[in-house]
Design goal:
By secondary structure, this protein is an alpha+beta fold. Strands 6-7-5-8 form a four-stranded antiparallel beta sheet, with helices on one face. Strands 9-10-11 form a three-stranded antiparallel beta sheet, sandwiched between helices. Strand 6 and strand 7 form a beta hairpin. It is elongated and about 75 Å long. It starts with 6 loop residues before the first strand and ends with a helix.
């Protein structure tokens, strides 16, 4: 967001750009729960190109704060509408014009889902990948832990044979678009890679709900996955089963079988 420069006349007198209200609106407040929905609780990126008057007003800053979900280059998209607004002052060497493009992400413009597969949640995720062949494998556990804490939806490793026959690992992270910068920073800081690749992918998931229920072995959280109104599967949470196995001395497999039967019965009620 280009703030411009110079000064602006207000009812309180002449003030420097950005105006106090603009600066306050764009200030990142990590404790602001509403901000956490905008660009993943990230910062609003601003700059000034030296233009000698105000380019972002408090009203414009408020609109951006409420509607922006991230910052970046123009994505791959199918343009549906274009809006153009012209300012009332001329700027040397550049047009005083704002354009808005409305369209559909290329990854979202995929073929219709057949009726048998409808009912789940559909969206777009960012996939980040890198190949590594020179890192101590003990480090991966810590890296994956950090990535999950940062909001990664999934993290996994794939074995590879790289150039000169060296064994390597492909680290793959699936995350929301707004997490790209934060996740990339962690990977570049915590691993030996010198580069990443990323792309957007369409995603469809079953509707999921977690309930904590009483069983003969104790309280267990169950994950119920549905396609529309149809229950596709009900599974007990692994960590709860492990806790019960340690507490009771029962084999983990026995605990999982027992809770699975109970969860399926209760999940379909």
């Amino acid at each position: 967001m280009n703030l411009g420069g110079g000064f602006v006349k207000t009812v309180h007198g002449v003030l420097p750009v950005p105006a106090p209200a603009t600066a306050e609106i764009l200030k990142t407040k990590i404790q602001d729960s509403r901000l956490r929905r905008v660009a993943g609780a990230t910062k609003f990126k601003i700059y000034s190109d030296g233009t000698d008057f105000e380019l972002t007003t408090p009203t414009g800053a408020a609109i951006i704060r409420e509607t922006a979900s991230g910052f970046g280059n123009m994505p791959e998209m199918i343009i549906e509408k274009i809006g153009v607004g012209a300012g009332g002052r001329d700027i040397k060497d550049k047009p005083n014009v704002l354009r808005l493009f409305i369209g559909e992400s290329k990854t979202e413009a995929c073929p219709p889902i057949p009726p048998s597969a409808r009912g789940g949640e559909r969206g777009v995720v960012t996939v980040i990948e890198t190949n590594i062949d020179d890192m101590n494998p003990q480090i991966y556990e810590y890296v994956m832990e950090r990535l999950f804490k940062a909001g990664a939806l999934d993290v996994f490793l794939t074995q590879l044979i790289m150039k000169k026959g060296r064994p390597g690992i492909k680290l793959t992270v699936i995350c929301g678009r707004e997490k790209l910068e934060e996740i990339s920073k962690i990977i570049l800081e915590e691993t030996t890679t010198i580069g990443l690749r990323f792309y957007e992918a369409g995603r469809k998931t079953l509707n999921r709900e977690i309930k904590k229920l009483d069983t003969k072995l104790g309280k267990v959280s169950f994950k119920t996955s549905k396609l529309g109104d149809k229950v596709m599967r009900v599974t007990p949470e692994y960590e709860d089963c492990k806790r019960i196995a340690r507490k009771t001395g029962r084999p983990l497999l026995e605990v999982m079988r027992s809770t699975s039967a109970a969860s399926l019965k209760k999940g379909k009620k």
